[in-house]
Design a protein that fits this description.
Length: 409
C-alpha cells in the first residue's frame, strides 16, 4: 500500500479529547475523502453517509467472525460461540436462517404488548428516583436509563426482575471487548461474564421447556420453521445479543440524546410543548439517535476485492463504517451539528442498514419514546449539572449525567 497515494485518516482513538468529542476530527477526515486508511486500526474507515451505507449494504463486505479459542477448554470458548452462533456475526445462509427463526418469535406481538409495562417501569423508576433526589438533582443514567432497558428485557424473557443488575453487569463486561484495545483485565471479565451469562440463559431456557410461558424466551424455545429450530447455542447467543445490543443502544442513545436536547433551551421548550404529540416524540427520538450515535464503529470484512467510493478494499481487509460520522454528514443533514428535535426526514444509520439492520430497533425506539416522554412530563424543564462520559469510542455514552429542574420564573 503506497503511503503517498492512499488517503489516510489521522484521528487518534487513544486521544482522550477525540474520545470525548470526535465530531470535529471526523468532519476534518470527511474532507480528506469518503473512505480512508487508518494506520492505528489497520483498516479502512468511512467518513460519509453514502460510504457507510454502501459498506453496510454490500453483501461482499461480511461479518466474518474469527475464533479466539485454541481448543474446547480455552477460556475464550464460550465467548466464541456466543458470537459465532449469533445473528450479528453470521452471514447467509446461516444469518438468513437465524434471522428467520428469531424474527418469527419476535413477530408474535411480544414487543407491542410490552408498551403498558414499559410505561409502568418508567414510572416506578422515576418514583424511586424522586425519593433519592439529592437537593433536587439525580443521575439519570444510574437511576433511570441503566435499569429501564434491562428490566424490559427481563419482562420480555420472563426472567426475574431482581436479576437485572447481574444481567447489566454481564452485558457491560462483554461489550467492553468491542472497544479498540481492551485491557487484559477487561478480557478476563468478559470471559467470566460469558460463562456465567450463558449458564444463566441455559437454565432459564430449560425452565421454559418444562414450564412454557407467554414470553419471548418460550417463543424462541418453541419456534419452528418446518423441521428447523434454534440449537441450544443459537438460542443462548440470541438472548445474550438481545440484552447486549438492546441495553447499550437504549442507555447510550438516551444519555447522549438527552444531553444534546438539554444543551439547547429553545429546543427543550418546544419538545415540552409537544409531549402529547406521538409523531413529535418519535421525531425527537430519531434526532437523539442521530445527533449522539450510541454506536460509532461497525466492522465488515471484504470477501473479495470491493470498489468502495473510489477505493479498492482488498479481499481480507476490514472496513469500519463510522456511524457517528455518517450521521453528521452535511450531504444528508442540514446543519448536522445542530440538534433539531423536529428534523424530518432523518435517514440516520444508528441501527445500521442492510441484512444486519438491528432486529431490536422497534423495541429500542419504543423504550426511548416512553422513557424520555415520562421523564420530561414528570420533571419539566431540566439542565445538566454534572456530566461524565465513558472513556470509550465504539460504544459512546455517559457514565454519569446529573440533572436538576430549571427554576421557573
Amino acid at each position: 500500500m503506497s503511503s503517498t497515494t492512499t488517503p489516510r485518516a489521522t484521528f487518534d482513538l487513544d486521544d482522550p479529547a477525540f474520545v470525548a468529542d470526535p465530531y470535529a476530527a471526523l468532519a476534518r477526515a470527511r474532507e480528506e475523502g469518503p473512505v480512508l486508511w487508518h494506520d492505528g486500526l489497520g483498516l479502512w474507515v468511512t467518513t460519509t453517509h453514502a460510504a457507510a451505507n454502501d459498506t453496510l449494504r454490500d453483501r461482499r463486505l461480511g461479518r466474518i467472525f474469527r475464533s479466539r479459542a485454541a481448543s474446547d477448554d480455552d477460556p475464550w470458548t464460550v465467548f466464541d460461540w456466543l458470537h459465532a452462533d449469533s445473528i450479528l456475526d453470521s452471514e447467509p445462509p446461516k444469518h438468513t436462517r437465524l434471522r428467520r427463526l428469531v424474527a418469527g418469535a419476535f413477530n408474535r406481538g411480544h414487543i407491542e404488548r410490552l408498551r403498558p409495562r414499559v410505561e409502568q417501569i418508567a414510572g416506578e423508576l422515576l418514583d424511586a428516583a424522586a425519593e433519592q433526589v439529592d437537593g433536587g438533582r439525580f443521575d439519570v443514567i444510574e437511576a433511570y436509563a441503566e435499569a429501564l432497558p434491562v428490566l424490559v428485557i427481563c419482562e420480555l424473557l420472563g426472567a426475574p426482575a431482581s436479576d437485572w443488575k447481574r444481567l447489566r453487569d454481564w452485558s457491560q463486561a462483554i461489550v467492553r471487548m468491542y472497544e479498540v484495545a481492551p485491557s487484559a483485565e477487561a478480557q478476563r471479565e468478559a470471559q467470566r461474564a460469558c460463562d456465567e451469562f450463558a449458564a444463566y440463559v441455559e437454565a432459564l431456557a430449560a425452565e421454559r421447556v418444562a414450564h412454557p410461558g407467554d414470553d419471548l424466551l418460550t417463543a424462541l424455545v418453541e419456534e419452528r420453521d418446518g423441521g428447523d429450530r434454534l440449537s441450544r447455542r443459537e438460542l443462548v447467543a440470541t438472548v445474550v445479543l438481545l440484552l447486549n445490543a438492546g441495553h447499550e443502544a437504549s442507555v447510550n442513545g438516551f444519555g447522549n440524546g438527552l444531553a444534546s436536547l438539554l444543551a439547547d433551551p429553545a429546543q427543550q421548550e418546544a419538545v415540552l410543548a409537544g409531549l402529547d404529540d406521538d409523531a413529535a416524540v418519535a421525531r425527537l427520538v430519531e434526532e437523539m439517535l442521530r445527533h449522539g450515535s450510541p454506536l460509532h464503529l461497525f466492522e465488515r470484512t471484504a470477501t473479495t476485492d470491493v470498489e468502495l467510493q473510489g477505493v479498492t478494499v482488498r479481499e481480507g481487509q476490514k472496513v469500519a463504517a463510522l456511524l457517528g460520522a455518517a450521521n453528521r454528514d452535511p450531504a444528508l443533514f442540514a446543519d448536522p451539528d445542530r440538534f433539531d428535535a423536529a428534523r424530518e426526514p432523518n435517514p440516520h444509520l444508528a441501527f445500521g442498514a442492510g441484512i444486519h439492520f438491528c432486529l431490536g430497533a422497534p423495541l429500542a425506539r419504543m423504550e426511548l419514546q416512553i422513557s424520555v416522554r415520562a421523564l420530561l412530563r414528570r420533571l419539566g424543564a431540566l439542565r445538566v449539572v454534572e456530566a461524565e462520559r465513558r472513556p470509550t469510542f465504539v460504544l459512546r455514552g455517559y457514565e454519569r449525567l446529573v440533572v436538576e429542574r430549571v427554576p421557573q420564573a
